[in-house]
Write a structure and sequence with these properties.
Strand content of chain B: 25-35%
Strand content of chain A: 5-15%
Order of helices and strands of chain A: HHHHHHHEEHEHEEHEEEEEHHH
CATH class of the largest domain in chain A: Alpha Beta
Number of strands of chain B: 10
Helix content of chain B: 25-40%
Order of helices and strands of chain B: HEEHEEEHEEHEEE
Shape of chain A: globular
Largest sheet of chain A: 7 strands, parallel
Distance between the termini of chain B: 56 Å
Largest interface: A-B, 66 and 49 residues
Oligomer: heterodimer
Radius of gyration of chain A: 22 Å
Structural class of chain A: alpha/beta
Number of domains of chain B: 1
Radius of gyration of chain B: 17 Å
CATH architecture of the largest domain in chain A: 3-Layer(aba) Sandwich
Chain lengths: 474, 133
């Protein structure tokens, strides 16, 4: 059985790489790191292991690019800030190996001149934006969507017709989001959705035709290609097209603005949001968080809200309350929609973070108990081998609030498709008012406002939300 | 004499640490430097980033840049013109990023800006862990 998360997979690869390093994988440049072993704290050991690993990656990249020692040294120096940030800030090493596309790191001076250049370019031609709009026709039908090869495993879309139960997995027939109720009205045409994450596989067979823009917020370039991409999976849940391959996204006729963001600073985060807004995104899906959101980022989120852009954040996978003192997560910000995870059993998952400022839950799957939600993996050999025997390597079953969030973003995209003037406030009100109150047969306790501590306002109901969004159209 | 030296040293340490905070949502976020071993420290000698922990254990990094937002209807460039700033750039309609000279303390500078009635937000351009979920 292949039950795992993207993060877990990264950990496995990290472990393998550490083994490959044999504890001796430091580069010549960093050989002094082997000193002081006996006096280091566990955390310091962790940081140093991180240095070794990142040095290896940097060296491999620089040696592949340059042949002379002097150029390799310059290249390694350019990596240094990134390595320090990664190793000194990371609490765990499970994401380190996803940083293998940092080939375009820019110097401070270049960064500042780039910012100034962006200011000049910010006057985006609105006419061009309109021309970019999805020109796909409304000929795609629910029947065609259901004919996608792996639709039968996509319980988050249609649990009652999932054949996973016959394969030994336990899927509640109501665990889906009632997407077919929405697809009778729209499949999201004309709406641009941004995913801000670690990049995407822009050549993926089940994504490329719906990627409108690829933007690397770290470099200002277009290269967002990343191995073991978390963002790839997130994007697929929203816009995987109806094309006779693999799966289908929740809003398959929407277009994707895929933004790669790995720099850890607030300024880059804000820049990524600004880029999405200025290029016409009405929905921005973020499957990450810091538990420590800065005032400037909150201000930017409020600005997006006021500009009519709906931003969604994943609540996180620790199964804890975000109301605890000292927690100040992006998913709790008033101007965003905070999303937790529901599982195959049609109830909130045990790992889903919760709190009074989380708004909704949506399928995120629970590989501990079942199989997870079916999404995109890297294409071909870069993808992880399938262990279920159900799908090819271009796809994977995964779990996490990371995936509940784009699934919800897809629903929001369809709401914008039927009502382009809908406001983020209305989006949130409709999503929460039309949600399905799951878990009542268990210990759910929805209050007069319809809020349950762990389930928020319930599980999204795409059909009801889209109908309501259309109904309030002016 | 020895006691006096110790007290002076402690006082100096407190003074050094006293400046290391920023304001978030109107509240002080106190910081402590991340303690590192000699080898890690030596690696960080040339780093532009300094690393701290908040009281709740969250790691942050800071350099010599600060994010600023002025109160509504104020020309932020004009407000900032009275400060000794190396570079200023507009990130959004309302948010600016400024760079200060490396000999200035980024926290103290941000605190000074925050104390300006025309400025709503002023904190270092924080670097932090962004976890995928």
């Amino acid at each position: 059985m292949r039950n795992r998360t993207v993060t877990t997979l990264s950990l496995i690869v990290a472990t393998l790489l550490f083994s490959a390093c044999g504890g001796d994988g430091s580069t010549e440049k960093r050989s002094s790191l082997s000193e002081e072993n006996s006096t280091r704290t566990p955390r310091e050991n962790k940081v140093e292991q991180c240095f070794i690993q990142m040095d290896e990656i940097a060296l491999e990249d620089c040696e592949s690019k340059y042949t002379t020692d002097s150029k390799i040294d310059v290249c390694l120096d350019e990596y240094e800030d990134e390595i320090l940030d990664t190793c000194m800030l990371e609490e765990s090493q499970d994401t380190l190996l996803n940083n293998d596309d940092n080939t375009d790191i820019i110097s401070d001076d270049e960064w500042w001149s780039w910012i100034k250049e962006q200011e000049e370019n910010n006057a985006i031609d609105e006419e061009e934006n309109r021309d970019d709009k999805d020109k796909s026709t409304a000929t795609n039908t629910i029947t065609e969507a259901k004919a996608e090869p792996y639709f039968k495993y996509a319980w988050h879309l249609d649990a009652s017709n999932s054949i996973l139960n016959s394969k030994g997995y336990k899927i509640n027939e109501h665990a889906d989001i009632n997407v077919t109720g929405a697809w009778g009205i729209t499949m999201g045409a004309g709406v641009k959705v941004a995913v801000i994450d670690d990049g995407a596989d822009v050549n993926h067979e089940d994504l490329k035709s719906n990627i409108l823009i690829a933007y690397n917020a770290d470099t200002g370039g277009e290269n967002i290609q990343t191995k073991e991409s978390h963002g790839n999976t997130c994007a697929g849940f929203i816009v995987a097209p109806i094309n006779g391959k693999g799966i289908v996204g929740v809003s398959p006729e929407s277009k994707m603005i895929a933004i790669k963001l790995e720099d850890s600073s607030d300024a880059y985060t804000i820049r990524a949001f600004e880029y999405a807004k200025k290029h016409g995104a009405k929905v921005i899906s973020c499957s990450w968080g810091s538990n420590n959101v800065s005032d400037a980022v909150v201000s930017e989120l409020k600005s997006l809200y006021n500009a009519g852009v709906t931003v969604l954040f994943a609540s996180g996978n620790e199964g804890v309350s975000l109301d605890a003192q000292g927690t100040n997560d992006e998913s709790e910000v008033e101007w965003v929609i905070g999303v937790g995870a529901s599982g195959e059993n049609n109830d909130v998952t045990s790992y889903s973070n919760y709190g009074k400022n989380i708004d909704i839950i949506a399928p995120g799957g629970d590989t501990q108990e079942a199989i997870g939600v079916l999404g995109l993996d890297d294409m071909g050999e870069s993808g992880y081998p399938d262990e279920t025997g159900l799908i090819n390597n271009n796809y994977l079953f995964a779990n996490g609030t990371s995936f509940s969030t784009p699934i919800t973003a897809g629903v929001v995209a369809m709401m914008y498709a039927v009502n382009p003037n809908i406001t983020p406030k209305q989006v949130k009100e409709i999503l929460t008012a039309t949600a399905t109150k799951v878990g009542k047969e268990k210990n759910a306790s929805y209050d007069e406002q319809g809020f349950d501590k762990k389930r928020a306002y319930g599980k999204i109901n795409a059909g009801r939300a889209v109908v309501e969004a259309e109904r309030i159209k002016i | 004499m020895k006691k006096q030296i110790i007290i002076s040293f402690l006082g100096l340490t407190l003074l050094i640490n006293a400046g290391e905070f920023y304001y978030s949502n109107g509240n002080k976020v106190e910081l402590s430097k991340v303690e590192v071993s000699q080898t890690i420290g030596s690696r960080m000698l040339n780093s532009r980033t300094k690393y701290y922990k908040t009281a709740t254990g969250k790691s942050i990094g800071v350099r010599d840049d600060i994010l600023v937002e002025c109160v509504a209807n104020k020309d932020c460039k004009e407000v900032l013109s009275k400060y000794e700033i190396t570079e200023i750039s507009q990130l959004t309609d309302s948010i600016y990023i400024i760079k200060i000279s490396s000999d200035k303390n980024v926290f103290e500078f941000a605190q000074k800006l925050y104390g300006d009635n025309n400025i709503k937000i002023a904190h270092p351009n924080l670097r932090k862990i962004r976890n995928r979920r």
